[in-house]
Amino acid sequence: MPFNTALTRKLGIRIPVVQGGMQWVGYAELAAAVSNAGGLGILTALTQPTPEDLRKEIRKCRSMTNKPFGVNLTLLPALVPPDYGAYAQVIIDEGVRIVETAGNNPGPVIEKLKKANTIILHKCTTIRHAKAAARLGVDFLSIDGFECAGHVGEHDITNFILLSRARQELKVPFIASGGFADGQGLAAALALGAEGINMGTRFMCTVEAPIHQNVKEAIVKAQETDTALVLRRWKNTTRLYGNKVALDALKIEKESQTGDFKEVAPYVSGQRGRQVFLNGDINYGVRFQQRLIPPMNMDVADSYPTQVWTAGQVIGLIHDIPTCEELLSRIEKEAVEALDKSRSLYTDTPVQSKL
Ligand SMILES: Cc1cc2nc3c(=O)[nH]c(=O)nc-3n(C[C@H](O)[C@H](O)[C@H](O)COP(=O)(O)O)c2cc1C
Question: What superkingdom heads the lineage (predicted)?
Fold first, then answer.
């Protein structure tokens, strides 16, 4: 049954579920599968080493689906930032109409994309940032609660509060992100005022997600208590799957006398983030964990094969590895049932007490 929300109408999708950008996961195979199943699939731009590689991936995705899909462009602080303008230009040139933006200082990229008439979904973890993005003219805000995978922000506000604050404060429609895995969650998000949901971790654990089976099985086995928050000391708090490397990094972060980021950098390097998804060793590289300081003249990112990977608290709700089609059909059915059931919870006629 098609949903009728601001999100489904604007994007031309059937089910109001977005697959959020995921570094080293958001390739054409996953994005196309999500779009074919009725949601919005999203390619992750920076998973492609160059803008030209992104162009190829967009073309590949288009060959796999005739449904709408988007591209995520994440703007994170870096010593040598990627050429965001060039990635945005490829997105425009290839005629992609939907972009998910995230991260710092998105103004220039959003301005460029809006000039090309692109629909923008911008991710935020605070209402203050959401309002700033609204002033930039974004079409939807994607409100990321503290439950979410990856960058959770520094304020630790869970979605029960954040979504209602969004409903109270924002003039721009919003979707709910972080902690969603099923149709009951979708129905709850709609009841709180969202126009749909965004899911990351749940889509990692699907047949089409191009990552190692061991990672998917680790998610199925995990509980909601199995994530770890690292990098708070440097105001870059990130939620990871709580493997040995993440827990060791956290210990160093807490106990370091110097507070020098170099001590944990080898543990949390995003550059090598891909390896665990390829080799499937969910504790990849722990044998190297005793070496804290990278040898001189060695790039931090390349010096240690230690590995962490991102996952949200929602790992506790994930118990299987369905196809995207199975997952989205199930979410659709559950959401409709939950919304129908809610109608039976009130009545026009007074209820007789059994007392
Ligand atoms: C493995 C992984 C990688 C991610 N990489 C990115 C990224 O590069 N850019 C981004 O904006 N969000 C990224 N996210 C966040 C997701 O897009 C989404 O907002 C988040 O997963 C929602 O929380 P959930 O995991 O509870 O569904 C990532 C999430 C995961 C699980």
Answer: Eukaryota
